[in-house]
Every structure is written in structure tokens, then in C-alpha cells.
Write a structure and sequence with these properties.
single chain; mainly alpha; two-stranded antiparallel ribbon
């Protein structure tokens, strides 16, 4: 018996408990959608779902990492890795250590800061945006 692990990416509110997310995804027909995609793409396979689960991760509005310093450099922030941060752990460790020690990041890393969301944050809320 051979099996395939197939998934889809859907967003849900972070405050919703996992069991409610599972029920929501089932109600939206996600499992049936995946089975239909397998049936259409792999004609020789009779698809059936053996199990399903919900995985959680952090994400940013543009799907890129968020790396920044807050409160005058006293807080280093790294999030929004879409569940792929482990792939970059060696690089991120060095980068975050540099930021914690007050080093100025390279230009490509500086572009991952919260400032890129400032126009959206200001439009959405009257409070000042976080970041530099």
C-alpha cells in the first residue's frame, strides 16, 4: 500500500481553536476538494482520505519573514515564517544575534522590517504603527 501526503493552504483566525478549524475546513469541503484534485491528476489512483489535520503557523500579509527591532533595540522580532523558519534557522540565528547586539542589518534584511506595513497599519488603526 502506498500513500501520499497532500495538503492545501487556507488561513484561519489565530484565535480559533484547532478543533473548530478542523470542523470549519471540513464544512468548507477542503478534504473533498483534495480528493477531487487527486482523482483528476492521478487517474490510476483511487483517492481516499485516511486522516486530516490542521497545522498552524505564523504568516505575514505579504508572505515574507518579519524581522525587526522594537523599543530602541531592546526587543528583536522574528515571525511570519509560514512554517518554513526551520529551513533558515542557522542564518536567522546569526541575523537575530546581530540585531540583538545592535548591528545594522544588510539592506535586504532591512526590507523585512515592520515599516513595510506602515501604510496599511495607519489606514487600519488610529494608533501609531510598530517598527522603526
Amino acid at each position: 500500500m502506498r500513500s501520499l501526503r497532500i495538503g492545501t493552504r487556507r488561513s484561519a483566525l489565530a484565535t480559533v481553536q484547532a478543533e473548530h478549524v478542523r470542523a470549519l475546513l471540513f464544512a468548507q469541503g477542503v478534504e473533498a476538494e483534495i480528493v477531487a484534485r487527486v482523482r483528476a491528476g492521478l487517474a490510476t489512483v483511487e483517492p481516499r482520505s485516511l486522516s486530516s489535520q490542521v497545522c498552524s503557523w505564523t504568516d505575514s500579509p505579504d508572505g515574507r519573514f518579519v524581522v525587526d527591532v522594537l523599543h530602541g533595540g531592546r526587543v528583536v522580532l522574528a515571525c511570519g515564517d509560514s512554517g518554513e523558519g526551520f529551513k533558515f534557522s542557522a542564518l536567522m540565528g546569526e541575523l537575530l544575534a546581530d540585531l540583538a547586539e545592535g548591528r545594522v542589518p544588510d539592506e535586504d534584511v532591512a526590507g523585512l522590517g515592520l515599516a513595510r506595513f506602515a501604510p496599511f497599519a495607519q489606514a487600519a488603526a488610529p494608533r501609531p504603527a510598530l517598527g522603526r
